[in-house]
């Protein structure tokens, strides 16, 4: 049989040829489309790149031109984008206080004796049926344990401690807490207030008017079905509710009162106001911070804050009597436009932007509490029972609390010692507590105890009220958004902070030059500081200037030189250095404080308040800043009253002079000029109007003089050159025809 040998042909099939043609067709169509678009493009140089008869050198030249233009565009837009990411917000002031709604402060009541005798005996009988071990001392230890007294509790052996589960510690402490009847808490309208048992770093406490307390209820921790949902339980007030107060009757013989924001929690080491008998009344003053509407939808990293009401907790120990506390409030709010910005842009976080699944809201105190919990978990491998646990966290037994007590100071101060860092350097993910990165809250209410009156009586009574509502509120607003990057290609001088003046300050030499190695910037800074202490401010300026030449990016040097210039009444130079300090370090509160001092000294009180407020935002717990803002506000009010008094006094003086002139004219002259009564009255009113005009003019001159010390001084080194340039008369050249011009050119004439 004849065999047929079938070979494999290398000839492509019709299908392969068709697919290859289709691919070439698609590629050619795409290239033709791109070439057509570039040819008809209005962008210069693009049509020359795809021109068919263009040489290779021409294509390379135009391509390089396009690349250089793109690079220049990136260079010009980078400063705009950097400003958009770092400092797009500004702090403004609101004055429409009639439309504001402020939250009444939350109250945390922590009794010194956390054992209710009836509940204690009932729990002893309950556990007596389960185990035969005597648990009286252990139950007392669980109820009294806080972050502050870990060094004072008795830590028993593991056999006794093992009889109780660590998961039950928080519930036991809450059940042993003395009860607070709702009828014992009544507001000024006669309405009872509901108290919530919450676990804090100070143990089990009762919390009133809090939106956060339900999340710290131990009974809810054990019930998986009772997921915490944010419910507003605080009371909102207006300026018309100034008489609102809350009274707590016969709570305990000795307890601490903590005043804080409704969305905040109490941290350990908070200051307490004691109450040991009598009736106690608290008055509150409010200071607010608000977020502009444009920033509310922004991410927390862009605006640098989270939206929450933050209160600085302060405890008031109460041990009997009638105690009255007056609280004042400082408020900051966020403009609606800023809610859409990122936290890094607005410099704060919103209420609904939590950083941990432990809580569904955010506040600065919650962030610090979360940082403490993570630090304890890294160092000790467990979490104390007075913190809300997560599903993957282990609760510490009483024996394991020895580890927490060992690191108690580092946990409370959120600072890691060198020994701890060396010991934990092999631990994965360990970092110093200072790296928590807690942003401030975008909307902040800071409650400060302003009045404290104790009246000894036979009953224990607490009364809390707001002393004064704020009439000035700080508002975070956007001043530079993404549209500015699109609309502008360069940063104008009006949009940026003034740079350092070109007054040849950096060219000034140190007159005290000595042989040997040149001094360092730190040595010159130390010499400048010594000169400031001796009130030798000119010498201090020279030292600081020489130090700036060596270290031009040291913002502390500019701040110190700004202070020296301020003492020399050189307000313009002082303001330039203060602005340079803020530009080099926008997150340093002292830079804004230094700028506010210069603005206040030059009479720009409104700008000074804004700078002080910005410094307060960066350092919210600095009482000196609050005092300066209060002083500036009082100074503004006094200045306004003085101007009004000057106007009225001038008017009265003019009226009195007019009346005296009319009387003298009528009595001392034989033929009085003013004989008609209407003429006499008109003359007196005319002089009073002149007095009013004089007083008004004096007040206007005073207001116009504010800020004149910030006018740049004349540069004497350039005046002569400028005058010479201005007096140069351009040479007049005769016009010639083309033929005449060629003839003059041949003759060597121009």
TrEMBL record:
Keywords on record: Cytoplasm, Ion channel, Ion transport, Membrane, Repeat, Sodium, Sodium channel, Sodium transport, TPR repeat, Transmembrane, Transmembrane helix, Transport
Compartment list: Cytoplasm; Membrane
Membrane topology: Multi-pass membrane protein
A GO term from the CC aspect: membrane
Compositional bias segments (type: Basic residues): 740-750
Annotated GO MF terms: Hsp90 protein binding; sodium channel activity
Nucleotide-binding in keyword set: no
InterPro entries registered for this protein in UniProt: ENaC, ENaC_CS, TPR-like_helical_dom_sf, TPR_2, TPR_rpt
Transmembrane regions: 60-81, 646-668, 674-693
Compositional bias per record (Polar residues), positions renumbered to this chain: 498-513
Superkingdom to which the source organism belongs: Eukaryota
Xref: Pfam families: ASC, TPR_2, TPR_8
TPR repeat segments: 521-554, 589-622
Region (Disordered): 498-523, 731-750
Main location, first listed in the record: cytoplasm
PANTHER family in the cross-refs: HEAT SHOCK PROTEIN STI1-LIKE PROTEIN (PTHR22904:SF532), TPR REPEAT CONTAINING PROTEIN (PTHR22904)
Entry's family note: Belongs to the amiloride-sensitive sodium channel (TC 1.A.6) family.
Protein name: (diamondback moth) hypothetical protein
Organism: Plutella xylostella (Diamondback moth)
């Amino acid at each position: 049989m004849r065999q047929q040998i079938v070979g494999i042909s290398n000839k492509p099939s019709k299908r392969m040829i068709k697919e290859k043609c289709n691919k070439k067709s698609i590629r050619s169509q795409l290239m033709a489309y791109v070439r057509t678009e570039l040819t008809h493009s209005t962008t210069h140089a693009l049509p020359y790149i795809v021109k068919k008869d263009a040489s290779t050198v021409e294509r390379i030249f135009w391509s390089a031109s396009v690349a250089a233009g793109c690079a220049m565009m990136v260079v010009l837009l980078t400063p705009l984008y950097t400003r958009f990411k770092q400092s797009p917000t500004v702090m403004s002031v609101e004055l429409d206080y009639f439309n504001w709604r402020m939250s009444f402060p939350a109250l945390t009541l922590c009794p010194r004796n956390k054992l209710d005798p009836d509940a204690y005996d009932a729990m002893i009988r309950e556990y007596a049926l389960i185990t035969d071990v005597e648990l009286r001392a252990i139950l007392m230890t669980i109820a009294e344990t806080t972050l502050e007294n870990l060094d004072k509790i008795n830590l028993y052996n593991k056999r006794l401690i093992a009889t109780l589960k660590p998961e039950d510690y928080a519930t036991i402490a809450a059940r042993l807490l003395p009860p607070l009847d709702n009828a014992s808490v009544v507001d000024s309208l006669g309405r009872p207030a509901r108290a919530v048992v919450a676990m804090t770093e100070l143990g089990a406490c009762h919390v009133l008017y809090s939106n956060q307390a339900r999340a710290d209820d131990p009974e809810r921790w054990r019930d998986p079905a009772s997921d915490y949902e944010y419910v507003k339980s605080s009371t909102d007030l207006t300026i018309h509710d100034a008489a609102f107060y809350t009274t707590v009757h016969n709570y305990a013989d000795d307890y601490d009162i903590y005043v804080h924001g409704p969305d905040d929690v109490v941290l350990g080491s908070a200051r307490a106001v004691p109450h040991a008998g009598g009736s106690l009344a608290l008055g509150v003053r409010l200071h607010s911070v608000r977020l502009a509407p444009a920033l509310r939808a922004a991410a927390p990293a862009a605006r640098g804050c989270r939206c929450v009401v933050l209160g600085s907790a302060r405890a008031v120990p109460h041990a009997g009597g009638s105690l009255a506390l007056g609280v004042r409030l400082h408020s900051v709010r966020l403009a609606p436009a800023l809610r859409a910005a990122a936290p890094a842009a607005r410099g704060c976080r919103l209420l609904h932007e939590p950083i941990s699944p432990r809580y569904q809201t955010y506040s600065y105190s919650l962030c610090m509490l979360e940082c403490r919990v993570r630090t304890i978990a890294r160092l000790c491998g467990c979490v104390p029972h007075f913190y809300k646990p997560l599903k993957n966290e282990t609760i510490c037994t009483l024996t394991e609390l020895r580890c927490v007590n060992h690191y108690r100071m580092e946990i409370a101060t959120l600072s890691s010692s060198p020994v701890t860092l060396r010991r934990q350097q092999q631990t994965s993910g360990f970092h110093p507590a200072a790296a928590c990165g807690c942003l401030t809250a975008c909307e902040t209410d800071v409650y400060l105890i302003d009045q404290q009156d104790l009246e000894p009586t036979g009953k224990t009574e607490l009364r809390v009220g707001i002393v004064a509502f704020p009439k000035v509120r700080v508002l975070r607003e956007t001043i530079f958004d993404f549209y500015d990057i699109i609309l502008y290609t360069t940063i104008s001088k009006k949009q940026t902070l003034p740079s350092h003046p070109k007054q040849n300050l950096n060219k000034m030499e140190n007159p005290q030059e000595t042989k040997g190695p040149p001094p360092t910037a730190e040595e010159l800074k130390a010499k400048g500081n010594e000169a400031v202490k001796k009130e030798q401010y000119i010498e201090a300026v020279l030292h600081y200037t020489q130090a700036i030449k060596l270290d031009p990016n040291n913002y502390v040097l500019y701040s110190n030189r700004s202070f020296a210039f301020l003492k020399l009444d050189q307000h313009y130079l002082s303001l330039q250095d203060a602005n340079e300090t803020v530009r080099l370090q926008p997150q340093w509160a002292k830079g804004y404080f230094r700028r506010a001092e210069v603005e206040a000294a030059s009479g720009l009180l409104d700008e000074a308040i804004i700078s002080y407020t910005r410094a307060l935002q960066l350092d919210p717990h600095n009482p000196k800043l609050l005092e300066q803002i209060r002083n500036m506000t009082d100074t503004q009010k006094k200045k306004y009253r003085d101007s009004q008094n000057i106007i009225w006094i001038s008017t009265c003086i003019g009226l009195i002079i007019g009346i005296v002139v009319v009387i003298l004219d009528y009595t001392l002259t034989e033929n009085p000029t003013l004989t008609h009564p209407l003429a006499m009255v008109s003359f007196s009113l005319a002089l009073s109007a002149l007095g009013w005009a004089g007083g008004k003019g004096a007040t206007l001159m005073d207001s116009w003089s504010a800020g004149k010390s910030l006018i740049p001084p004349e540069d004497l080194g350039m005046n002569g050159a400028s005058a010479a340039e201005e007096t140069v008369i351009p040479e007049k050249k005769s016009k010639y025809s083309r033929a005449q011009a060629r003839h003059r050119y041949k003759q060597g004439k121009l």
